[in-house]
Every structure is written in structure tokens, then in C-alpha cells.
Amino acid sequence: MPHLRAQGDATQLVVDGKPFLILGGELGNSTASDLDYLRQFWPLFDSLHLNTILAPVSWELIEPVEGRFDFSSVDGLIGQARAHGERLVLLWFGSWKNSMSSYVPAWVKRDQARLPRAELPDGRGIEILSPFSAENRQADARAFAALMAHLREVDARRHTVLMVQVENEVGMIPNARDHSDVANALFAGPVPGALLSYLASHRDSLAPGLRERWESNGALMEGGWERVFGSGAATEELFMAWHFATYVEAVAAAGKRAYPLPMFVNAALIRPGRQPGEYPSAGPLPHLIDVWRAGAPSVDFLAPDIYFPNFVEWARAYARPGDPFFVPETGRNPVATPANALFAIGRLDAMGFSPFAIERYQASDRLAEAYAVLQQLAPLILEHQGDGSMVGVCPPVSLEGVVNDTVQEVRLGDYTLRVAFTDPFGRAPAQGVEGHGALIIQLGPDEYLVAGRGITATFSTPGAIAGIESIREGQYIGGRWVPGRLLNGDESHQGRHLRIPEDSFGIQRVRLYRYH
Ligand code: DGJ
Fold first, then answer.
1. Which domain holds residue 414?
2. What separation in Å is there between the alpha carbon of 27 and the centre of ligand 1?
3. 281-329 pLDDT, tens per residue?
4. Rounded to whole angstroms, how far apart are CA atoms 206 and 191?
5. Who is most buried in 2, 270, 390, 463, counting CB within 10 A?
6. Domain-embedded: residue 73
7. How many domains is the chain built from?
8. Other Cβ atoms closer than 10 A to 270
């Protein structure tokens, strides 16, 4: 069965006994709800070199009547994926999808008395199921467990389905917390001991904001929420995060009992300066990572949906040492997204990458080129993950969209590589340097592979001058290096640098030597 395993500092997804790199794309929300509509896109997915589709499974479609399951939408999806040689990561649109509960079946929507919603301070309900209701939790867990049992039945041998995301972008809005009577009573009650024990036993690795709140209030091991963490919206958010996490835990655990595929949750990220309640609060955000870990141990990892331009910064917030790292959603930026894939996989050992609304891409997009390169390199990448012999570089972009084109230095083995994103001859790049980047692997003591676009690399080594012996461009076919042109003369600036032009992705291998 697909599972996660550590390789050095990285976590890999293992499928059929071998590590697997997800070159993914996530479907738009409604695309898989009509199998005939979905059918048209598989040739495109093939041209984009995808090996995995992330696709929703919605509660309303699989359990239209309580207790009566209809898995035709799931079976149809699996059938189409198999017919086109693709794998799937399924997204459980259960109690919550982008905070809201729009994907719950009609019988849930219509029975507010039994299956209650979160409430505003004035007592009005909102279209968000309350995480404080055992009925809600059990109904979701039953449906999810039925889905996982069905997957076991139809897919335990083929392994078309690799992982499952539990819920989608859980969050509370427009207030920091639910104000139902049950929620009010629990908020006035003690902080659960399980959360406090977790904080105490993980004190040194806690997210800085959380540790500060807890310690500045005396690092108490018992007491009410506002006593332990101080009053205010941030504490209300912690309270909600704990209850969302424990609810998701019940759902994930029920699913794992039926079929223990790797499971994760995804986060809608936030703009700096916004207060809880002004954004979908209490999801698996960086400042709440510990609360989610403590509350939802059956969830294997937390993943970011990175739509902001500062991809590098957000990715780093989730790729913490020892944590599995996967990007289930990222924005549809045809220029930056492919370079971000090289960075996430090369630098942060991502087990996969997946731009959102993949059916809106075109076969001529840069993503297809980047994925073609990653597809060729996948066996090599997987071999080098977690052992410090691989990096990814791209110019970081700020939240405001300012691209930092400063030269980056990376040390790999005995050599330091200086990677520039601007043109070495001072020509203005046709479209700026956003989207430039590379994945670099050390192949031997004097040999490096550089894959990417729009970069120039020079080399240095302590105690000697680093010279370029030779550079070859080429391709990996069936995992074997097939060399192409020997790049010298103008292509290497007469042996001074390695250069991949900005007009397309390429792979080059360079051999270095030392002289004095
Ligand atoms: C993030 C959500 O997780 C997706 O389902 C989708 O709604 C996108 N946002 C839309 O940009």
C-alpha cells in the first residue's frame, strides 16, 4: 500500500515498493462531478507530463441519502485515471471546503437541529458545520470511513489512489470562533490536558508565536483558555484550531481504520496583519502547526496551498526538518509556477507539486516543459532526496511581487556554485527573471547536473581555481543519460560558465577540474 518513509532528511511517498515523485495537477472544484466533462482533459494531462491528478470526492455525491452510498463518481474517476496511466490523490470535500460546508449532503444541510452549524454571536447560524457537534463528526467520519473501505475494495491491489486529503482548507470566518452555546461553554472551560502536555513536551520546537503566548502567561499546565493563553482573537483561534483538529482526527482515524493511506490536511494561507476572523482562521497554518499536530495525530502532514507570490517563504514555513513536504495547490501563474516546482522539489525535497485548475493549462505552457524535465529526472531526484546533494534555486518574490534577482551561492560537495538569474552579458531578460531557476544535483566529486531555465552558473573551490572540463546538454531516456551537444565556445562563454538560456528548460551536465 502507498506509504511514507524517511530518506535522510526527506520524506518520500513509496508506491509499489518504490519512491514516487508526484508531478501533479489539481482539478477545478466541479470538473470531476461530471465524468463526461472530465473525459476531455486526459490528453492534456498527458501532454503536461502529469503523473497524478488531485481530484475532489464530495460527500454530497457519495452519500445522497443518509447511510446509502453511491460510489459511481469515485469509480468513474479511478477508471478514467487508470485508462490514462495516471494516479490520484483524492480530496475529501466533507464537512468543510474553504471553511464552508457547501459540499455536505442535502440531508445534512436541512437538519440544523441534529447537525448544527457554527453560530454568530447573535445566535444566527452560518454555513459552517459546528466542529463541536458529535453528530456532525460521526456523520462525516462514517461517510469518510465508507469511502476508504470502498477504496480498499477497489484499489488495494492497483494503488491508483496514493493519498487522501481530509477536508479542504478548514477555517473559521467571519468570526474567530463559533459562538454556539456548546462552544461558549467549552471556551469558558479548561484547556484540554492533551494540548498542554503536547506543548510541554515539544516546548523547544513550538511555533514562536504560540510558545510566546503560552510562556508569557506563565506556561500553565492547567486553566481556562484565556487564563493560559491570554484573551483576544488569537486565543479564540487556538481554541477553534484544537476543536477543528480533533474533529478531523476522528474523521481521519475512522478512514485509516478502513484503509490506512497517507493522509494530509491543507491550509488557506493568510495575509500579514489580518486578525483571526478576518481570514479563514484556525486551519493548519504555520502558527498553529503544533495545535494541529497535537490534535490530529492520524494526519500524516500539513500542507500549504500557496497562491501568494512569495512562494519560497511559505514553502519554507512548511518544509521544516523531518516534516513531509507536499504542495497540493499553487496558483496558476504560467511563468513562476514551473520554477517554483524546481525549487520545492530540488531545495525542499517535496514529495510532489500540484498547480490548481490544471485543466485550464495548455500543452504549450512552460509547466509542460518543466514537468518533462522533472519526469526525466525523477529517478535521480528520488535517489538524491534527503542526502544534501541536491538544491533548487529560483529568485525569491515578495508578497508585493518584487522579484529579488540577487546572485545565489550554493555549496555542494567541494565546489560552490554562484547562480545568476540575469543575463551574463547585461541584456535585459525578455520577461524579467521571474520563472528563472534550476535544480542542481551533485553526481560525483567533480560532476554536477543543472536543469532549469534562465540561469548562469560559475564555480569555485577552496585552494584552487575551478575550471570547466566539459559541459554536455542532454536528456534522460528511460532513466539513462543520452548526451546531446557538447556545449563550448559561445555556449559556455569560452569555458567561463554554464548557461541555460531563458527561452526553454534544459538539462546540462558539467565536469569540473582544478588548477592553480
Ligand atoms: C483553494 C481551494 O482549496 C480550492 O478548492 C479552490 O477553491 C481554490 N482555492 C480557488 O482558487
1. 392-515
2. 10
3. 999 999 999 999 999 999 999 999 999 999 999 999 999 888 999 999 9
4. 17
5. 390
6. yes
7. 2
8. 19
